[in-house]
C-alpha cells in the first residue's frame, strides 16, 4: 500500500528531469568559443538596455500616457476660493487717473449671483469676494453650478458701475464730476482683465495657474457685456509604482467668450446704475475628462524584455552553427572508431570551410576521390547514429548470444563476470535476485502473440471463423442487455455511455478469450449502471428532479387557472400557471372550444396587473394560444400597451402584435406603429421594424406606405435600427429593383454600422447575380465590395469576400487582393476567423478557374491543427487545388488524421478524392491505395459506402484502373462485417462480370462468401458466380462445381439461383437481334387493339410472327414514331409561348393581304416588356422572322380609366443600314383597360442572313380625356434584334464530331481578340450571342488544357442546320483569343455567323 501511495505521489511531481547522455566525458552540451563570444555580446546588450530603461524611469524621462475625452455633463459644480479674475487699468502717462482710487472712486465693482435666471441685488463692496491692491481689483470666493436638482443653478455677474456717494461707506469716497469727466476724456481708458485657469504639470505632478489676459476699452454712455463659459476638466492621475494609485483633480482648464457692446440703458434698468463693464461667469455644458497614467515598473520590464527577446533572435544562428559543428565532429569521431587510421589524414580547409588539400602519409591525395570517399563514410556514420540502427545491432547481438549460450544457466553466469576491485575482495558484486529483469531470454522462451502473426492455412482460417462467430454472439447478447436496460429505465441518454464502456472493455482485453468471461464482466458493469440509475445520488438525482412539470395534468392546471378571475391577482401564482399552460401546449395538449374560450378571457383579465414579469408571460401565452374569434380584445389591450409609458410593455406589445393582427385591424394601428418606428428609444424602434417585417407577410401594401419612416431609420446611430430598417426596406422594394438599386447606391457612399454594412453587401451580391443590372451600377458595386475587404470589422470583410467569390465577371487578377486578405486570416490565432477564411477559399475554388489563386503551402500547416473542423476543411481544399506531383504525399498525410475527423468531414474528404480522380486520372494508383486504407479506419457505414461509390466511379471512368479497383473491392469484402456494404460490392462485381471485364481471381473471394455469410449475401454471391459462368467459358467446369455445391444450401433463394444459372449455362444460346422502330410501333398498336384478350388469356400471345402479320394487314394505319420531329417540336414549344399560338400567327400572316408577300413565318420570339408593370401604358413586343423580313408586333394596353387613345402609331429609329423600315399597321383606337396591336414590317439586306440592330420606339397617339382632345407621345425602352433571335438550339443524337464530318459544306473560320476576363465568362457570352445548344458537355472546363473547345449547334429560322467550334485561349499580353469555325447547309450563312463577332 505504501509503495502504491508513493507511486501516486511521484506522478504529481512537476519537476522531473530527463536523462541526457554526455557528448564527451566532461559535458553533455557542445559549446564553442564563437558561441561564448556571441553570448557575451547578446546578453550584454540585453542587460545594458535594461539598465538604461531603469535610469530613464528613475529620472522621470519616460512620458506618461495621456488620454482625453469630452462629454456632455448633466450637472457640474465648482468653487474658486483663490483669485479667479483680476482687473487693472492699463498703464499710460503720469497724469493718468486711477478709477479705483479709494478716495476718488469712479468705477465701483460688485459681484452678484445669478440664481435661476434671477439677479438679487447686493452690496457694492463685498470684501469677501473683492479686494483692492493699488490699481488692481481681485475677485475670489466664487461658486458656479448647474443641473443639480437639489440646489439652484448658480452663475456670477461681475459689474463695474458708476460710483454713487449714497451707497459708499467710509473710508471710500466717490470722485467729483470734474474728475469723472476728465477720466472719460482721457485718450486711452483701457482695462486689463486677467482670468486664472489651471493646467496639470506632468513633470512636477501638480496643478499650475495660468493667467489669460484681455484688454477692454471703457467707454462712456456704453456697456461692454461679456459671457465667459468656463471649461471644467477632471484629471485622474495614476502615479502607482506597481499597482494603481489614482488622484483626481477638478479645475477650470480653459474658457471661451462671447461679447457685445450695448447701450447703457439696458443695464440701467437692471441694476439701477450706469454699468460700463459687465462679466457673466458660467460653466460650459461639456466636461473634459483626462487620464494621466505614469509608467509602472511592470511596463519597463516588459519593454526591456521585448527588446531582449528581439536581440536574442540572433542566438538561433549561433545554435544552428554549433549544431552543424557538433554533427560534423560526431561523424568524424564515429568514422575514427571504425577507421582508426582516419586520424592520420591531414585536411586543409579554406576560410569558408571548403577542403583545398588532403595529405595522407606524406602524400597529397586526389581531392575529388577523397570527397566522394568521405561522403560515403559520413553517410554510413549517420546511419550508425540512428536509434533504429542501434536497436537492430543490439538485437543481432542478442540472437548471436542466444545461439552460442543455449542454456539459461550460462546466461545467468554471464551476469557474474566482472572486474575485481583492487583493494576489496567481494565475491559477489551483484545480487542474483536482481538479475531477472536484465537477463536475456532465450528464443525458445519468447512469448509471441499469435494474433499478430499472419498464417495462411486452413487451421488459421477456422480459428478466425470461430472467433468471428464468438464475437457476433457476444455482441448480440450485449445488445439484448442494452434493450433490457433501456426498457426498464427509459433513459436514452445513457446509451452512448454504456456502449463506450463496452468498447473500452473489448479494446482493453483485445481478444475474446479472457481470464474472466467478457460477458460476465459486461454484466457487472451494466449492473453498476443500473444500480446508479435506480438510486441516483448527487448531481444525477438533481438532474432527474429538474423536470418540475413531469407529471402535469391538464385538468389540474385548468382548475388552477380560475384564479385569473380573482379580484386580487397573485402575480407569482399566475406566472406559474401560465408557465404550466405553455408547457402543456408545447407537449401537444389540445383544448376544446369551451376550455379555450374560458382560458382566453381569463388571460385577458391579467392585463389589469402591472407586474412586469407577469406581463411578459401574458405576451408569451398570447403567441402560443390564441382564439381567432376573440382577438379584438387582445388587440385593444396591446394597443393600450403600445402607447404606455413603460418601455418594456411597449416593446413586448409590438413584438406580439403581428401574431394577432389581421387585415381588418391594420388601419387603426397604423399611426401607433409609425410613431414607434420614429421613437428615439432604440429597442422600441427595432421592435416596431421587426413587427413591420412580420406584418409584411400579411399585408404588403399596408407596409409599403411606411417607406419614408423606414428610410429615416437607415441613418440611425443604433446598429440594430439600421439593420432592421434595411431589411424592411428591402421587403418593401422587392418589386421595384430599380429603386432599391438606387437606394443601395446611396448607402455605399455613407458610413454604416458593421451589421448594416454587412446586410448591404448581401443585397449587393443578390443584385449582382442577376443579369439585368446596368454596367454602371455593376462597376460601382464591385468597387464598393473591393473597398470593404480593407475594413477593420471582420464581419464586413468576410461578407465582402463571400460576395466577390460569387461574381463570375471578375478575373483572377481582380480577386488577388481578396485572396491575400483571406490568407492573412489563416495565420490568425482566432479559430473562428481561420474557419471562415477556409470556407471562403472552399467557396472560391468551387469554380475550377479560381483554383490557380490558391497556394497549397498556405493551407498545408492547417492539416495538423488541433481543431478537427479546421484540419478537415483544409484537407478538402488541398485535394481540390493540389498538383499531380503532390497527390501521393498529400493523401498519405491526410490518412494520418482521418481517424480524428468527424464522419461529416470524412465524407467531405471522399467527395474531394472523387473530384481528384476525375481531374487527375493518371494518379489512380495513389487514389486506390488511399481508398483501401479508408476501409481499415473506424468510420460509419455511410462513409465506407461512399468509398465503394468512388471505386465504382474509377471502374467506369478509368479503364486502366479497372482491374485494380475490382480486386481492391473484392479484398474488402473478406474483412467487411456489414451486410449492406458486402451487397453493394457484390452488385458491382455482378455488373462487371456481365460485361466480361472482371478478373477471374475474384471467383475465389466470392466463393468464400458462400461459406461464411448469411443467406442474403450468399444469394448475391451466387449471382456473381452465375454471371462468371455465363460469360467466362474457360472457367465453366470449376464454376459449375461451385454452384452445384451451393445448390445444397439450406436457404431456398440460394438454391434456386444456383439451379437457374446451371440450367442457363446448359441451354443453347440464341442470337437476339434488336427490334426495329417499325416492329416496336407494331407491338404498341397490337397491344392497344388486343389489350382485353391479352389480359384474359393464359397463353403466350406476344408472338412476333402474329404481331407482324397484324402489322401487314393494317399497313398505313399504324402511327409511326418521329423521334427527331418530336425533339424539334419540343424546342419550338420552348421558344414560342405555345405551339397553337405559333400556328395561329403562321396562318394569320399567310392569309393577310398586307404581309402575305413576306412568305412563310419561320420563327417567333417570346414577348418582351418595353415598359414597367406600373406604367399607365403597358407595351410589349414580339419579333416574327421570315426569310428576308421581320415583323415587330407591338401590343399596347391602356390602363387608364377615363382616357381613350386613337390613331396610335409608332416612330422607329433603326441603327443599322442593313435593316430598313417598310410598312406599318397602326391601331385605330384603344379603349380604357383594353389593348390593341401595332404591326411594323422591316426588310433586311437579302445578301445577309443575319442582322442585329438597336430599335428605339416612340408611341404617337391622340388622347381623348373627358371630352378634351390633344396630341401626345410616349417613349418606350429600347430593345435589340440579336443574332440569337434567328436560331433555335438543337441537340443532336449523334456525337458532334460525327455530325460535323457529315456536313459536306465549306468550313468558314476566323480569329478574334475578345474582351472577356476568363473562360467561364467567354463560354456564357458566346452561347448567349449565338443562341445555340451546347454539345457533348463542352461547357465543362478542364483546367490542365491550354485552351478550351466549345461545341455549339443550332438551326437557322427552323430551316438550316449550323455547327460552330469555338477554341478559347488566354494570353497574358493579349487577353482572350477566340478561333471560330463554322459549317452549315448554306455557305453564306456560315460566313455571316463567323462575321458576327467582328
UniProtKB/TrEMBL annotation:
The chain crosses the membrane at residues 33-55. Residues 1144-1281 form the Coatomer gamma subunit appendage Ig-like subdomain domain. Residues 1285-1396 form the Coatomer subunit gamma C-terminal domain. The lineage of its organism: Eukaryota, Sar, Alveolata, Ciliophora, Intramacronucleata. Signal peptide: none annotated. PANTHER family: COATOMER SUBUNIT GAMMA (PTHR10261), COATOMER SUBUNIT GAMMA-2 (PTHR10261:SF0). Residues 1080-1114 form a coiled coil. Oligomeric complex that consists of at least the alpha, beta, beta', gamma, delta, epsilon and zeta subunits. GO terms for biological process: endoplasmic reticulum to Golgi vesicle-mediated transport; intra-Golgi vesicle-mediated transport; intracellular protein transport; protein secretion. GO terms for cellular component: COPI vesicle coat; endoplasmic reticulum; endoplasmic reticulum-Golgi intermediate compartment; Golgi membrane. Residues 562-1062 form the Clathrin/coatomer adaptor adaptin-like N-terminal domain. It holds the Pfam family Adaptin_N. The coatomer is a cytosolic protein complex that binds to dilysine motifs and reversibly associates with Golgi non-clathrin-coated vesicles, which further mediate biosynthetic protein transport from the ER, via the Golgi up to the trans Golgi network. Coatomer complex is required for budding from Golgi membranes, and is essential for the retrograde Golgi-to-ER transport of dilysine-tagged proteins. This is Gamma-coat protein.
